[in-house]
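Page 37, continued from 36.
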């Protein structure tokens, strides 16, 4: 690995058009999982000037389905919660078009279990999980701080500290690495929606303290390398300024480009889709490997074929940081966790309405919560993995 370098990752806020769509899709998924924990859902959303379109497929085992009115209420409440009541995109007046339909019977044949067949993967694909020891949450530093900068700014907007700023925002953090470790932020960029009466200097004065509060002490770049709204103006925001689409911020969702991303997005997909559950289980395994001290970083890949339960491949790469042979680690992980989709869902308890909160500020590097969300961030394999060191 190159030891001295610069690396950049970006994040986007909950009011970014693409993230609005991710949240809509995951909110509809959560609503279906409340009706039926085994519901099969694949929901896509599109947002533009004062309009939201949702489409996709759904199947429940108990015959319960959301009405068009219920889906519309979910969408309007979400848009209101994010903070959009502006000309061009308002929770009160936006038009909603619902194109949801029933799941293909051909897909159901391949995925469903039977007396002589375990439940198959919901799709083919490759999934990656990654962890490293750069931060307390075992995430690469650039994406970690890009998320936290926006998260802190958005909390301040919602509690009234930054009432002149809007919900649409992006961040970008460039870190300097020396001997393979991050030592400071070289550049930080924040673009954020603001009221028309604010000057560029006004916005800068509002935002800069939140950057400084988020970065570790001594990491702040010099003033010329802190870029705030470099176009000079950002009044028109949200889907009125740019269209949004589910699944268009997949690198923001994972590791900020520091590790590979698999073949698909996450939001709007129930956990039988291995695009989602496969990525969660590989993050879980990689994080436990690093937390146990077996390696400073760990990348895991798994692959599946639609309708087949057993994974086609299972791969590990610790980039030369492993303390024991990687094959030994791989064999131990296979001993500890069964990677068939049904058993992944059972292991991580994924058939719950826990997905809306994953749609903003990353699916990884979060804290496991009492409702079962972010269960893939648990460190309950560490004790068993540590035995390999002895």
């Amino acid at each position: 690995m190159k030891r001295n370098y610069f690396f950049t990752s970006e994040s986007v806020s909950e009011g970014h058009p693409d993230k609005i769509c991710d949240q809509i899709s995951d909110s509809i998924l959560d609503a279906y999982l409340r009706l039926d924990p085994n519901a099969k859902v694949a929901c896509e959303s599109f947002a533009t000037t004062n309009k939201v379109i949702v489409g996709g497929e759904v199947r429940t085992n108990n015959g319960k389905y959301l009405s068009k009115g219920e889906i519309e209420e979910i969408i309007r409440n979400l848009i209101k919660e994010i903070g959009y009541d502006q000309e061009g995109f308002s929770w009160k007046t936006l038009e909603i078009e619902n194109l949801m339909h029933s799941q293909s019977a051909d897909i159901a044949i391949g995925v469903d279990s039977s007396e002589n067949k375990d439940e198959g993967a919901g799709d083919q694909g490759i999934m990656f999980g990654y962890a490293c020891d750069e931060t307390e949450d075992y995430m690469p530093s650039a994406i970690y701080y890009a998320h936290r900068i926006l998260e802190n700014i958005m909390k301040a907007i919602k509690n009234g500290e930054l009432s002149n700023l809007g919900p649409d925002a992006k961040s970008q953090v460039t870190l300097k690495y020396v001997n393979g470790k991050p030592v400071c932020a070289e550049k930080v960029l924040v673009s954020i929606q603001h009221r028309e009466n604010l000057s560029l200097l006004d916005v800068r004065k509002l935002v800069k303290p939140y950057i400084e509060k988020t970065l570790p002490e001594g990491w702040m770049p010099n003033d010329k390398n802190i870029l705030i709204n470099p176009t000079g103006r950002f009044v028109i925001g949200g889907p009125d300024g740019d269209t949004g689409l589910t699944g268009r911020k997949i690198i923001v969702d994972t590791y900020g480009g520091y590790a590979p991303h698999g073949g698909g997005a996450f939001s709007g997909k129930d956990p039988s889709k291995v695009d989602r559950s496969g990525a969660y289980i590989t993050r879980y395994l990689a994080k436990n490997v690093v937390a146990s001290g077996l390696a400073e970083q760990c990348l895991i890949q798994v692959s599946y074929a639609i309708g087949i339960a057993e994974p086609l491949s299972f791969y590990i790469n610790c980039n030369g940081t492993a303390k024991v042979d990687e094959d030994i680690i791989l064999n131990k992980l296979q001993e500890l966790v069964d990677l068939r989709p049904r058993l992944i869902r059972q292991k991580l308890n994924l058939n719950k309405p826990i997905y809306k909160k994953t749609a903003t500020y990353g699916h990884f590097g979060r804290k496991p919560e009492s409702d079962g969300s972010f269960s893939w961030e648990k460190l309950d394999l560490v004790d068993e993995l540590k035995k390999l060191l002895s």
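The chain is about 30% helix and 25% strand. Flag for discussion at group meeting. The longest strand covers residues 165-178.
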